[in-house]
Design brief:
Elements lengths: L6 H24 L4 H21 L2 H18 L7 H23 L8 H8 L32 E3 L5 E3 L2 H28 L5 H22 E3 L1 H4 L2 H11 L4 E6 L4 E3 H22 L3 H6 L6 E10 L2 E8 L6 H10 L5 H6 L2 H6 L22 H10 L3 E7 L3 E9 L4 E9 L2 E6 L3 E8 L4 E3 L2 E6 L2 E7 H4 L12 E9 L2 E7 L1 E9 L13 E6 L5 E5 L1 H4 L1
Parallel strand pairs: 4-6, 11-20, 15-17
Antiparallel strand pairs: 1-2, 3-5, 6-7, 7-9, 8-9, 10-11, 10-18, 12-16, 13-14, 14-15, 16-17, 19-20
Length: 540
């Protein structure tokens, strides 16, 4: 019987089992007294073996079978799931994932699993365990990251019924919905010009239907954070063992849902922050005890929903950061001038760790310390029209907060005018709008500032920041100002006029427009004009 038509189903189901497998091993290693989790782990191994046997993938059957045997011994109470056998089982999970990937690609298997099968079969629980077990992946490279499960291709409803839909189809639905919203504005423009009052009621009904369609399409693309979070406990565990640190990793808010596109883009930035937390943030056990702390450090990831935004918070109880030391290092490396350092707020100083090439590490490790990573984190968050803020207390730990929209395909924006150009400011970056008198604009070291709630806020011309031509007409007596929140720091931009708010369909820019500074995308207005979307963080 030809089983090739069932290959895609096998790959999808196998990845689901393997994703849960790694998460459960790490959980049971920390919480040995959890028989339910151990039973579930055994079922995943058994199901994996059975599926592979049905498909005739004997190389997968052999490895899954010996893993199942060892789990059976653990379930019977013969020995606990200690670190050494956990290492072997995780190595087996990684190997199975690579074998499944080869099947998906249609290539014949090239990996020899006999050595791993022999090590699993001859595992002796009474043998003395080394401090840090050696795996084939250790050496000069960082610990291997678990192979993530493929993005889910279905939406599960409240009635536990599901239907498989290709992710490309969902992407097309979002694009079509965005185009419909754009054309709705064009239709409204035409009705207004023609003064066709009899069309206003149908237009109002169409608007409601489009919003309902948008909401349903977004629901279909929403996935729980758990889809990407399954790999993080394993990642922290491997890093901690490599660093010879005892780390308690806690994850809260797995059920919070985000757009699939955002989940795919935010996974790598989270990995960068977790690496830094384990490598730089947390002290060794001896250092922690000397500082009056528990020997084990804690890294906590919390995901919470705030209206149309999600906050991902990664915190550690480690050594924290000293803002004065950060400024000193930045001056030494030529990243900022001493004058700029003297003017920096505490939040500005923390944001220095996101500067390319910046690092305070005394030595470079295979995990971090090269001054790369956090700049990629900030860039990724900004690309998603989000905000990254950093909080820290020396000796007590650090906290990184990524505030992201639920979706970035269709956003609410504030439309402003600068000369001949209409521009869109993402509404989530706008704190407030103001009309300022000339006397309310102050000078600080030759730069304009304004007072907002007693604090001096830098004031910049949005026109000048984007390199737009100067106005030909005389300037008004009042200055229209938009106050923006950039990574927890307020920054004011003067504009010519505020036109209002609008829901817009974000289109990515392609070359050569993608090289424009301070612009993250574009949309089409109701009358067919191109409206550029301002990247406030890039201008800051």
């Amino acid at each position: 019987m030809d089983m090739s038509p069932y290959r895609d189903l096998f790959v999808s189901e196998a990845r689901s089992h393997l994703s849960a497998f790694g998460e459960l091993i790490v959980h049971i290693e920390k919480s040995a007294a959890d028989p339910a989790a151990l039973d579930e782990l055994f079922r995943h191994a058994h199901s994996m073996k059975g599926m592979a046997a049905t498909m005739g993938y004997e190389h997968i059957v052999a490895l899954a079978h010996i893993m199942e045997n060892q789990l059976s011994r653990i379930r019977s109470g013969e020995f606990p799931l200690q670190s050494v056998i956990a290492d072997l089982l995780l190595e087996g999970s990684d190997t199975l994932a690579r074998l499944v990937a080869e099947i998906e690609a249609g290539s014949s298997t090239s990996e020899d699993t006999t050595g791993l099968i022999r090590r699993l079969a001859t595992f002796d629980p009474s043998a003395k365990a080394p401090t840090i077990s050696k795996t084939p992946h250790e050496g000069t490279e960082a610990p291997p990251e678990p192979i993530a499960a493929a993005p889910h291709q279905f939406r599960q409803t409240d009635s536990f019924k599901s239907i498989r839909i290709r992710t490309e189809t969902l992407d097309h639905l979002v694009n079509i919905t965005g185009e419909l919203i754009t054309n709705r504005y064009r239709l409204a423009e035409a009705i207004g010009l023609a003064d066709a009052t009899e069309c206003r009621e149908p237009l109002h009904q169409l608007t409601g239907l489009l919003r309902a369609l948008r909401d349903e399409v977004f629901k279909a693309r929403m996935l729980p954070f758990a889809i990407i979070a399954e790999r993080f406990p394993r990642l922290v565990r491997d890093l901690a063992r490599k660093q010879r640190k005892d780390v308690d990793f806690q994850l809260v808010g797995n059920e919070i849902e985000l757009d699939r596109g955002i989940l795919e883009e935010i996974a790598e930035p989270i990995i960068h922050i977790l690496r830094n937390a384990v490598d730089h943030g947390l002290e060794t056990a001896a250092e922690r005890v000397a500082a009056g702390k528990s020997a084990a450090g804690t890294v906590t990831m919390t995901v919470c929903r705030d209206q149309d935004h999600v906050e991902i918070i990664i915190a550690d109880d480690g050594r924290g950061m000293d803002p004065e030391r950060l400024k000193q290092k930045a001056v030494e490396r030529g990243i900022i001038s001493p004058e700029r350092a003297a003017q920096m707020t505490t939040q500005d100083a923390y944001q220095l760790i996101c500067a390319p090439g910046f690092s305070t590490a005394a030595t470079v490790t295979d995990i971090s310390g090269r001054g790369v990573g956090m700049d990629a984190v900030r860039e990724a968050v900004q690309t998603l029209v989000g905000v990254l803020t950093i909080h820290s207390t020396s000796g007590r730990g650090s906290r990184f907060v990524m505030r992201l929209p639920i979706t970035v395909s269709i956003i609410n924006a504030l439309i402003v005018q600068c000369g001949q150009f209409d521009l869109a400011l993402p509404l989530n970056a706008v704190a407030r709008t103001m009309e300022l008198k000339r006397t309310e604009i102050l000078e600080n070291a030759g730069s304009p500032t304004i007072l907002v709630d007693g604090a001096q806020i830098p004031l910049r011309s949005l026109r000048q920041s984007l390199g737009l031509p100067a106005p030909a007409e005389a300037e008004d007596a009042l200055t229209t100002t938009v106050l923006c929140d950039v990574g927890g720091t307020l920054l004011a931009f003067s504009v010519d006029h505020i036109s209002g708010q609008q829901e817009i369909f974000v289109r990515p820019l392609r070359s050569p427009l993608s090289r424009l500074r301070g612009v993250s995308g574009a949309t089409i207005t109701g009358d067919g004009r191109v409206l550029f979307i301002v990247d406030v963080s890039a201008l800051a």
